[in-house]
Specification:
about 25% strand, 3 helices, alpha+beta, five-stranded antiparallel beta sheet
Length: about 160
């Protein structure tokens, strides 16, 4: 698999953090990084799981699929009991034609203790578009760097 570097995202040096321009650049970077994990996003179906040694499984589930968009749920699966915990519960909307991926929401009631500590240390505006999309961006990079990949069914 060839990973397209997100440095190829055109960005304006005049863009201020949290501005519309920088937010759209962040969405573009999210799309590229999501493509590192699942290269053909239009073909995603159902729920897929990726496992790597020494880490929790990563789940990517199709919540809604339309002609131009796909809404995904993304979370780690923690086996801390009989029923796996899903943390964080991130909802991601992929805009196929625009080649953008936007984190639309994240659960704030984390079950895993480590995620609760991280959330408690985040600024109060963590529910804003900028913060949740920065979370997605860094998480996608981390997951790809950890070796997570989603195998799509053969055509």
């Amino acid at each position: 698999m060839v990973m397209v570097p997100d440095q190829r995202c055109a960005s304006s040096w005049r863009a201020r953090p949290r501005s519309f321009v920088s937010l759209m650049t962040l969405y573009e970077s999210n799309f590229i990084r999501l493509g590192w994990l699942a290269p053909d996003l239009r073909r995603l179906r159902g729920s897929l799981t990726s496992s790597v040694a020494g880490g929790p499984a990563l789940e990517l589930a199709v919540l809604e699929q339309c002609r131009y968009t796909t809404t995904l749920g993304m979370s780690y699966l923690f086996a801390d009991g009989a029923v796996p915990m899903r943390d964080p519960a991130l909802e991601v909307r992929v805009y196929h034609d625009a080649r953008l991926a936007e984190a639309c929401g994240a659960g704030t009631d984390y079950a895993h203790p480590a995620l609760r500590r991280i959330a408690a240390a985040m600024p109060r505006d963590r529910g804003s578009r900028w913060s949740v999309n920065m979370l997605l961006n860094k998480w996608l990079e981390y997951c790809a760097g950890s070796g997570h990949r989603f195998a799509l069914p053969a055509a």
